[in-house]
Amino acid sequence: MATLAQDVGAQDQTAPKPPRVVDPLDVSRPELYRDDTWHEPFRQLRAEAPVYKVEQSGFGTFWSVSTYKPIVEVESLPDIYSSEAGGITIADFIEERSDVRMPMFIAMDRPKHTGQRRTVAPAFTPSEMVRMSDNIRMRTAEILDTLPWGEEFDWVDTVSIELTTQMLAILFDFPWEDRRKLTFWSDWAGDIELVKTEELRLQRLQYMYECGGYFQKLWDQKVGKEPTPDLISMMIHSDAMREMDQMEFLGNLILLIVGGNDTTRNSMTAAAYGLDLFPDERTRLEADPSLIHNTVQEIIRWQTPLAHMRRTATQDTVLEGQEIKQGDKLALWYLSANRDESVFENADKIIVDRPNARRHLAFGHGIHRCVGARLAELQIATLLEEMAKRRMRVNVVGEPERVAACFVHGYRKLPVEISKY
């Protein structure tokens, strides 16, 4: 595997690029997310150019789709707007070399997408949520009971990462003592800024191969064994996925790791950070725990832990009056659609009883809607419920350190103290 990555690097030395003119409406710039200054350019795009062509960016030319209605339209027409033709992010990690492509079902079109999604979907059914709920509650309670009251600590590492990494380890039947490897691989897999330098791109590839090698051993240990309720066993015992080649296996692993880790982790951090930003709403939630399940939807909407998904046009078409050409890249900015004032009144604010919070697009829409959405909702709701039992309030004591990238919309650190209310 290492040799393959070295060979790719030897073939792919890119020439220096001339400095480009920065488009103020290029919302792919990482500093907008690092500094939390993405609100204004998206506000302008929604008002003036919901479908806007960025001619030059760090990721090439692409269309920004920033309002609710056209994103739903694109997601509802998967034969015209492909997930497979160019992948699911505006970063082209692996160019067009078939030797290092990592197919994954979220980046597949029908019919193959249907079969592979159907394989893993049983891990996330309502009955599975019931089966896992006691375990999720027990682990959440254990972590909350170890937190220091009245002392500063990092909520991201101590609570959000630990809870989501434990959940991933259970879903994959992954060795418990090595579970933080999942966090490490997830961070490298989801960081689309790495595409911009050859050295980091190849470093990422190396870590992805390391991830694949580890999981291949887990796969081999389960071949020929009775089915068990974990994702690897489900793949082995399915017609759609048992014959995956190594790159397809690796691609689907990366999808499930990033999908299961980054989204829930960053929503759990947003629950602490966002409710602290809106103390009146936090007080309303503390007074009425029956609002927890709606609040979960509202926090996911407000945070939108994956800022965009990418589609590629398979034919010439028209979207909101703009002529889209075959092969054009479109970035569907869920982050912006979830702040669309025509759908969500006072959208920049967390409102714990917002009547239409469930209409958010943070999980996508249509055939590619997040397969693990129920599990994410269950984990966040359980966290809020266990905090309510302890009358635990999270007080933010410093600015968060944010992810500097336009794909995973999240937090590296959040300094907090906890107190009773």
Domain unit count: 1
**C-alpha Rg (nearest Å):** 21 Å
Work out the number of β strands.
12
Strand order of the largest sheet: 1-2-8-5-3
Q: What is the architecture at the second tier of CATH?
A: Orthogonal Bundle
Would you list the SSEs in sequence order as H and E?
HHHEEHEHHEHHHHHHHEEEEHHEEEE
Backbone shape: globular
Taking all residues together, what is the mean pLDDT? 87
Structural account:
The protein has 421 residues and is of the alpha+beta class. Helices cover 47% and strands 11% of the residues. It has one domain (30-420): Cytochrome P450 (Cytochrome p450, Orthogonal Bundle), CATH 1.10.630. The strands form four sheets. A five-stranded mixed sheet has the order 1-2-8-5-3. The chain has a three-stranded antiparallel sheet with strand order 4-12-9. β10 (401-402) and β11 (411-413) form a beta hairpin.
Relevant terms:
421 residues, alpha+beta, Cytochrome p450, 5-stranded mixed sheet, 3-stranded antiparallel sheet, 12 strands, 47% helix, disordered N terminus, Cyt_P450_B, Cyt_P450, heme binding, oxidoreductase activity, acting on paired donors, with incorporation or reduction of molecular oxygen
